[in-house]
Design brief:
The chain has 99 residues and is mainly alpha-helical. It has helices spanning 11-39, 41-44, 54-85, 92-95, and strands at 48-49, 52-53. It has a domain at 20-85. The chain has a two-stranded antiparallel ribbon. Helix 1 (11-39) runs antiparallel to helix 3 (54-85). The longest helix is centred in the last third of the chain and has 32 residues, at 54-85.
Length: 99
């Protein structure tokens, strides 16, 4: 019987999941950063957000917010995957000897 609460996944599966996750997040970044902010800026300017044309807002602010959200999503999902694989980092507080 396995007492480990989180079974480890093998190395190939781990890296397959990492690549898939990275490709998904990079695709979102490309779509928001280039497609919405550059290629579709004119059609998006028909809408406004806070009194500013939406295409301009996406190019100036929206893509930055999405990028920060993607970084947060990457960190949180990678921490979960690392725990699932049993390769999470150990903080110094967890490593210190107890008195």
């Amino acid at each position: 019987m396995n007492d480990d609460p989180s079974p480890e996944i093998d190395r190939v599966t781990y890296w397959k999941k990492v690549r898939r996750r990275s490709l998904l997040l990079l695709s979102i970044w490309f779509f928001v950063g280039f497609v919405l902010s550059i290629f579709l800026a004119e059609p998006l300017n028909a809408f406004s957000l806070g009194g500013m044309p939406f295409g301009f807002w996406m190019a100036q602010q929206g893509s930055i917010f999405v990028f920060i959200g993607l970084i947060l999503a990457y960190v949180l999902t990678m921490q979960r995957l690392d725990r699932e694989a049993g390769v999470q980092e150990v903080s110094e507080e967890d490593n210190s000897p107890t008195p």
